[in-house]
Specification:
about 140 residues, alpha+beta, four-stranded antiparallel sheet, 3 helices, elongated
């Protein structure tokens, strides 16, 4: 019985040492002091889900998204894009103006809240959400 406890203790120590080494190696060569974090990027088409016509100008849509995002987070980036996809039922290549919203330092529940509000505001059927594990840092002088 004592041998099993000793083996378990050695195993725990080995795991702790390995985690410490991985942590040190992860930061080697990182002159910016970056840290791991989840980056959320959402793509919101501006065509109405029912009519497939754009109801709001890009500036109106951005203003609406600013108001939505401000409720749930203190920082975000929003930019314009153009989305394209192939519709097999037509068949045709379709496109629409799209807002891309990028978030760091946000709880997953707040990402969901933003998507819920945006789906209602823009009458969307869905929003594409991309998540990435990234390294980031704020560079300051």
């Amino acid at each position: 019985m004592r041998k099993k406890k000793l083996i378990a203790l050695y195993f725990i120590i080995l795991v702790i040492v390995a985690a410490f080494i991985v942590s040190i190696m992860d930061k080697q060569g990182d002159i910016f002091g970056t840290e791991r974090q989840t980056k959320y990027t959402m793509y919101i088409g501006l065509n109405d889900g029912d009519t497939q016509e754009q109801k709001f100008t890009a500036e109106q849509a951005k203003s609406m998204m600013y108001d939505i995002c401000r409720k749930y987070t203190g920082g975000y980036t929003i930019y314009d894009a153009r989305g394209y996809w192939y519709d097999e039922t037509k068949p045709a290549t379709l496109s629409e103006n799209t807002l891309v919203c990028v978030f760091f330092d946000i709880e997953p529940e707040n990402v969901k809240n933003i998507m819920d509000d945006a789906i209602r505001a823009f009458n969307q059927n869905s929003i594409l959400l991309e998540t990435q594990e990234v390294r980031r840092a704020f560079y300051e002088k």
